[in-house]
Amino acid sequence: MNPFSSKHIKMDVDELELLQEERDEVPVRYLPKVLNGGISGIVGVSCVFPMDLVKTRLQNQKGTATYSGIVDCFKKSWRAGAPGKLNQVKGMYQGASVNIFLITPEKAIKLVANDFFRHALMKDQAERLSTPRGMVAGAAAGFCQVVITTPMELLKIRMQQSPDKVKATRLIWNLLTKDGGVRALYRGLGPTMARDVSFSALYFPLFAYLDGLGPRKKDDSGDAVFWASFVSGLTAGASASFAVTPLDVVKTRIQSGGSNYNGICHAFYRIWMDEGVKALFKGAICRMMVMAPLFGIAQTVYYVGLAEKILGLEKGSRV
């Protein structure tokens, strides 16, 4: 048979069109995606929050006057919660209530938006999204999430830095009534957006690439096996979080309210000139230790389809 005959070409085109129709007919269920994002976010934050507290305190100090490193900061933060083991544990979770409460909408927006944009940018009959398009989809997802991330991060940082363990409700009230209203909740919006857009633009395509290299399940779903998704999430989360650490340092400094920076560029300049380039990478190891397991857990729960199992739905195909 001539492979270039019109009949053969016609069959190939018909098969491709049929595959595309089958893909388009797959229902997009966003409720399971939202629930998966929320579940994974709560589990992840509960596991890594103490290290996030250490990261924030390291990033917010100038020099080594208070903490000499990760271990020293962890020990001093632990001792500050005394007396009693329960109080010490509670001290390491200072500010966690805000994260646990808002992590569900934050993670839901990020993961659902990434899926939406990946689907929208997928070329007809394409098996995989190209790297540039994957980066655009990830960046757009990061942009969407800042509406929740900015106030969540600001409240968390203020609570982590507060010596009198102020409650979230009182902090919100003070911000709204004394510090400029709703605008006060979005202090640091610029660096938060720059960090999250950059992070997502790096993370999602890197995860998709690494996940695609792993062995597939034997259930014809096309999904990677459990350990492959988990390791891909760990690696992509650690790599992307390290790359955007300078933006995270700037965001932490601006949102803590302890320094008078006039925007991102001014903060970068002052930190660089006053403390050196190493200061822009303060807490980098801590941040990697937070983000790697956080996104490893998030992507694993999300792609395993825990919410679909709870709701009794069939797990849909990925895009």
TrEMBL record:
It is a multi-pass membrane protein. Keywords: Membrane, Mitochondrion, Mitochondrion inner membrane, Repeat, Transmembrane, Transmembrane helix, Transport. Solcar repeats lie at residues 28-120, 129-213, 224-308. The keyword Repeat applies. This is Mitochondrial carrier protein. Pfam families: Mito_carr. Belongs to the mitochondrial carrier (TC 2.A.29) family. One of its GO terms (molecular function) is L-aspartate transmembrane transporter activity. It is found in: Mitochondrion inner membrane. InterPro entries: MCP (IPR002067), MCP_dom_sf (IPR023395), MCP_transmembrane (IPR018108), Mito_Solute_Carrier (IPR051028). GO terms for biological process: malate-aspartate shuttle. One of its GO terms (cellular component) is mitochondrial inner membrane. The keyword Repeat applies.
